[in-house]
Write a structure and sequence with these properties.
2 domains, seven-stranded mixed β-sheet, 10 helices, six-stranded parallel β-sheet, Rossmann fold, Quinone Oxidoreductase, Chain A, domain 1, alpha/beta
């Protein structure tokens, strides 16, 4: 079967299409014919060998952790009712960039009828995480919420969920194309944070008071400046560091400003609730209250281009790999078309 492997640590060019043996589901596992592979920014940093939060995989390795597709076989001890169902599945820390994946049955989440596999894949990690972050931030209707990287996969969902909670949202993005997307998602203001006075613009929009909640996924200088425009008794919620550095806030600074800092460690407690949050956000998508933004898709063999788009900051919303499995060596075609819907 076709896979994509990282043959060494480095830039996107280290991702190489390679043929690999067909997997077989072991006890407690299912075999998933993959239609869609989700990609996260963290995976690009793992590929470079610079991610500080995950152990380096042994080379060569198949990147990716999440797939959407159809269960084609079940292993020993697995409910045979899973066979033929459309699912989201966790491949583990690696192994998703492939035509077929053996996944633990306990990781499966059924995709509800009416929701496309690309949309479900776009919601898998980002939708559940955004739901948890908004819940933890305790947004009160009418409060100002600042979302960094608001045109990204996670940021675009944070904009929509904060709006649903009654917030007045300011989205930060770079370039008019992304700012237009943020406005289209319902943000009251969209500000380009490549402008040297962007934090002053935030203060002007809020009448000088600052924002009540910040969702900080960028870190570095951007995150630090966002903390400075957080209102007294506000919440500063950290969920990432796409700049390469987490926002460092000394406890005494937070106390002096009266700001509650929800640090990156909040994500460690999310795992136990990811499934119900995912089911919740998929239900919202089916009801039309949330729409995942799928900005660009690539075939499996162009995984390097997908990683390059994410790292080059040109990607809108979620970036996905689309896979059309060839017939397995066991006979019988499993190939089928993938219904792609773009959320722009």
């Amino acid at each position: 079967m076709r896979t994509v492997q990282a043959v060494r640590f480095g830039g996107p060019e280290v991702l190489v299409p390679i043929e690999a043996p067909e997997p077989a589901p072991g006890p407690g596992q299912v075999l998933v014919d993959v239609s869609v592979v989700g990609i996260t920014f963290v995976e690009t940093q793992i590929r470079r060998g610079v991610d500080p939060w995950h152990p380096r995989p042994e080379l060569p390795y198949v990147p990716g952790g999440m797939v959407a597709g159809r269960v084609s076989a079940v292993g020993e001890g697995v409910d045979p009712g899973w066979a033929g169902r459309s699912v989201l599945a966790d491949a583990g820390s690696t192994g998703a960039f492939a035509e077929r994946v053996a996944a633990d049955a306990g990781s499966l989440v059924a995709v509800p009828e009416g929701l496309g596999l690309p949309e479900a894949a776009a919601l898998h990690s980002d939708g559940a995480t955004a739901t948890g972050l908004v819940e933890g931030a305790r947004i009160v209707p009418g409060q100002w919420v600042l979302v960094e990287a608001a045109a990204g996969g996670l940021g675009s969902l944070l904009v929509q969920l904060a709006r649903s909670a009654g917030a007045r949202v300011i989205g930060l993005a770079r370039g008019e194309r992304k700012l237009d997307l943020v406005r289209g998602l319902g943000a009251e203001a969209a500000i380009d944070y490549s402008s040297p006075d962007w934090s002053e613009q935030v203060l002007r929009v809020t009448g000088g008071a600052g924002v009540d909640v910040v969702f900080d996924g960028v870190g570095g200088e951007i995150g630090r400046a966002a903390f400075e425009v957080t209102a007294r008794h506000g919440r500063f919620s950290v969920h990432g560091a796409s700049s390469g550095r987490l926002t460092a806030i000394a406890p005494e600074q937070a106390r002096r400003r009266g700001v509650e800092v929800l640090g990156i460690e909040q994500l460690f407690s999310f795992r136990a609730r990811m499934r119900p949050w995912l089911e919740q956000v998929m239900a919202q998508a089916l009801a039309g209250r949330v729409r995942p933004v799928i900005g660009q898709t690539f075939p499996l063999e162009r995984a390097a281009d997908a990683h390059a788009a994410i790292e080059g900051r040109t990607a809108l919303g979620k970036t996905l790999l689309l896979v059309r499995p060839r017939p397995s060596r066991g006979g019988g075609s499993r190939e089928r078309s993938v219904p792609v819907a773009f959320g722009q």
